[in-house]
Amino acid sequence: MPYVRTRPSAKIARAEALSQTTLDEFREYLQLRGYAVTTIQQYVAAATRFRSWLCHSRKRYLPLSDAVMASFIRHCRIKYHLRHVHHIQISLRHLVRMLRDRGDWPDVPGPSPTVIDLAVQEFVVHLRDTCGLAESTRRCHAKHVHQFLTSTYGNRPLRLKRLDRHDLARFVRNFAKQATPASNHSLVGTLRKYVRYLQLLGICDERLVASVPMIRRWKLANIPRTMTEEQVHTFLSSFDRSTAIGQRNYGVALLMAALGLRAGEVALLQLQDIDWREASLRIVSPKNRRVKVLPMPVAVGQAIVDYLRHGRPTVSHRHVFVRHIAPRDIPLSGSSIRAIAISAYGRCGFDPSWKGTHILRHTLATHIHQHGASLKEVADLLGHRSIETSAVYAKVNLPALTAVALPWPEVTT
Predict the structure, then answer these.
(1) What is the CATH number of the domain that holds 147?
(2) Which residue among the candidates 361, 362, 367, 369 is catalytic per the annotation?
(3) Which of 204, 362, 365, 390 is the S-S candidate for 379 at Cβ 3.0 to 4.6 Å?
(4) C-alpha span between 87 and 214 (Å, rounded)
């Protein structure tokens, strides 16, 4: 009997990872995330085509990886139209995500971190474990420190002990040429925090901390932008509450307009944070991780009830406000909530420069202060740790300012 060479049992066809059972699981994976029937059919058809190619290719004996996927895409570019190839790429991206979550697809190793990357990572750990800063604040500090170290050292060795005041002044001067005053102030605060961190490690002394340039920013110099009561009514009326998405967006907008919540606070709101018996909301701030309990107005409670009963899809988590467009099984993010507000500004014909949600927060604080609330009450509502932070709203309390204004002297000739 002639010798027949067989492949080792360890090198079984890797197409087994894309069996019919896997394709059925892929279909269920897409269904749970709310994709349309036609979209699911297209995605599963692309996965089936990839499996068929894998079974008849020499790549079937290789582990599933991005390199194998790239080979299949090159094959499709020769055989199919470019637009069809684009649809296949989108489809397989979801398949890879599912397989990667199960451990059947290897993660792509990123580039090796540089010395600057490692230094910034150590600083971020200090901000998290020692300073207790929020994730968004840590990202902002990490970005500025990475820019500073890259600008100062580039590809040269990172010799922090030789850092001097000229390096700090040069970077701040170059950065200030193309940034706003608020960004400059944030940058200087980051540099001062980083140099203090170096002092804690014994790399520099207090003289370098004192040499960080200062950018003058007068307290209470800016006046917060606010809406009129008519504009607030127009803003809330712009949402179509006959649809599920409109009910969700109206509830999001009402929480910010009636309670002054930040976008991140609305995104973190969960079902267990609502006390229906006490008519209160438990709010967790992503900025300082403090918890506050606020009374829930009747209109806010009714808007949430309408959304939970008639608009909110079935999901696996307990966040109140969720996505309605696939993938559904994730909560709304702070950026999505800001996009809801910006879209409503455009429908109402408001100032195109309004690009965030803090104007709703400023409006609420200004209106309640004008109607008799003290600055202490404003600070408690907004979650300010210092009453000085809320003092800016006294500048836009026109009725109170009118009462203390002196009469303008008349000049007679």
Answers:
(1) 1.10.150.130
(2) 361
(3) 390
(4) 53
β strands within 285-381, DSSP E:
291-295
Handedness of CA 238, 244, 247, 248 (dihedral sign): negative
**Last-in-domain residue among 80, 102, 124:** 102
The phi, psi pair for 372, rounded to 5°, reads 110, -5
pTM metric for this prediction: 0.74
Q: What is the pLDDT along the chain (413 residues), one digit of tens a residue?
A: 444 444 443 333 455 567 888 899 999 999 888 888 999 999 999 999 998 888 887 665 667 788 888 888 988 888 888 888 898 999 999 999 898 888 878 776 767 889 999 999 999 999 989 888 888 889 999 999 999 999 999 888 899 999 999 999 999 999 888 888 778 888 999 999 999 999 999 998 888 988 888 877 666 556 678 888 999 999 999 999 999 999 999 999 999 999 989 899 999 999 999 999 999 999 988 776 778 899 999 999 999 999 999 999 888 889 999 999 888 878 999 999 999 999 999 999 998 888 888 889 888 888 887 777 777 777 777 777 666 566 655 555 545 544 444 455 565 55
Annotated active-site residue 358? The verdict is yes
Domain membership of residue 261 (yes or no) is yes
Q: In this structure, is residue 91 part of a structural domain?
A: yes
Catalytic residue among 60, 94, 144, 262: 262
Does the annotation count 287 as an active-site position?
yes
Q: Are residues 173 and 249 in the same domain?
A: no
Q: Which domain holds residue 171?
A: 115-210
361 is catalytic: yes
Please say if 262 is a catalytic residue.
Answer: yes
C-alpha angle 377-256-244 in degrees, rounded to nearest 5 = 150
Strands (E), 184-319: 274-275, 280-284, 291-295
